[in-house]
Structures are given as structure tokens and as C-alpha cells.
Amino acid sequence: MRAQIASLAAALFVYSHSYANSADLARTPVYKAPVAIPGYSWTGWYVGLNAGYGFGGNNSASVTGQDSAGAAAIAAGFRPDSVQLEPSGFVGGGQIGYTWQFNSIVYGFEADIQYANIKDDVNRATPNAAGVLRDNIFEQKLEFFGTVRGRLGLAWDRTLFYATGGLAYGGTNNSGNFYNPAGLAFSGSVKRTEVGYSVGGGVEHAFSLNWTARIEYLYYDLADTTAAVSLLPGVASTTAGYNVTFENSGHIIRAGVNFRY
């Protein structure tokens, strides 16, 4: 009997000791490995606004005669053979685009359009055969500007450095007005949309999950425009007129903000 009681007591001791140990283990805190937070992603659609400053790259306006008399007047220095224009002014508008990100490489496309007020005018006075000076006024203006470009860049988490290039188009307005001593004698202008190319680059930074800000430089080169500066009705002249060919190129520096979806 005593042996049975001793065995039962030993069994109860072992059970209670095991239960206490398991309870202690249950109260031991469990530590979980930290969850990695993914970096910023540049993949997705975006829309935004931009504003900046445009300036010309010494655009040339070249003059040729519409007939032999006009060519002779230019050769004699009675009319200028060319002038340099440096248009400048405000640009502002909007953009839309999409980018993909593969590791640190970001690529995509963007289209933008903006109002422009990039303009300049130059007066080059030349003498007639009697030595009397006559005004020759050249005017150039870019009234709107747009692009459709590819983008390729390198992302450093929330900061993106990129190059860009593609199609460019713009509304040009170029004119010439040549005077005689008695007043305006030759006049002409051409206003149309020209197409060319644009290249540049910039840096963009995400300051929140959906909002980014950028600074961008673009060079644009649109097709040359030729304006017929012809003799006005009722003006006596041995010359029919002149053709003025304008270069339409320049630089744009602008800042922008984008909302990314």
C-alpha cells in the first residue's frame, strides 16, 4: 500500500512540474522578424502642370530677293541679307504620361502642351542709293508649344534623373516689314504650326506617395518658316519684294508638379 501511494505521489509531482514548465514557456514573448517596406515605385500614370521661361538660340532670319532687282539690292547693302533674333518669354501648360520601373531603370512616354509668349523683334536700318536710312523690321513669336517624347532615367528611390526626346510642334508667327523713305513699302507674314524635335533632361523628386516635383530643360528645333515680304499695292518700286526665312529654335527651362495615380 505504501509503495502504491509513493508511486502516485511521484507521478503527480512529475505532472505538476511539467505543467508549470509549459506554462512558463507559454508566457515567453515571441519576437517576429520585421517586415521590409518596399521602396518608392515610379510605375503608373501621372498628370501635372508646368511653367517656365523660353529663350531663343540666335535664330537667323535670312533675306533673299524675289527677283533679280531684289537680289541686287541685298548685294549692294540696300536691304539686309540676314539678322539674328533672340526671342524669349513665358511658357506654361500641362503634361500627361506613363512610366514603368524595372529595378532602378525608369522608362516611359510623356505628352505636353503649353501656352507660349516667346518673341523678339529686330530693326536693321539700311541706306538707299542716296544714303537715306530705311527701317527693316523682323518679328518672331512662338505662341504655343507641345511635345510627344520618350523618357529614360535612373531612379534613386524617390529621386529620378532622366533624359528625354521626341516630336515637337509649335505655333509660329513670323513677319517682315521693310520701309522706304516715304513709309512702309514691303510687308508679309506667315502664321502656322511647325513640326520638329525636342531633346533634354531633368530631375524629379517624389515628396509624397502621389505628388512629385521636377525641374526640366528642353531644346526644341522646329522647321524653318519663309515669309513673302512683298511690295504693297500703290507703292512704286523696281523690286517685287523679298523672302525672309526664319529659324524656329530655342531653349526652355521649366518647373512642374505631377500627381501620380
Unreliable stretches (pLDDT < 50, length at least 5) are 1-26, 33-37
Tell me the strand order in the biggest sheet.
1-4-5-8-9-10-11-12
H/E element string?
A: HEEHEEEEEEEEEE
Number of strands: 12
Shape: rod-shaped
How many helices? 2
Share of residues in helices = 10-25%
The whole-angstrom Rg is 37 Å
Main beta sheet: strand number and arrangement?
8 strands, antiparallel, barrel
User: Which structural category do the helix and sheet elements fall into?
Assistant: mainly beta
What fraction of residues sit in β-strands? over 45%
User: Mean of residue pLDDT?
Assistant: 89
Detailed description of the structure:
The protein is mainly beta. It is 13% helix and 65% strand. Residues 1-26 and 33-37 have low confidence and may be disordered. The protein has an eight-stranded antiparallel β-barrel. Strands 6-7 form a two-stranded antiparallel ribbon. It has helices spanning 2-26, 68-75, and strands spanning 44-56, 59-65, 82-85, 88-102, 105-123, 126-127, 133-134, 136-156, 159-180, 183-206, 211-231, 241-260.
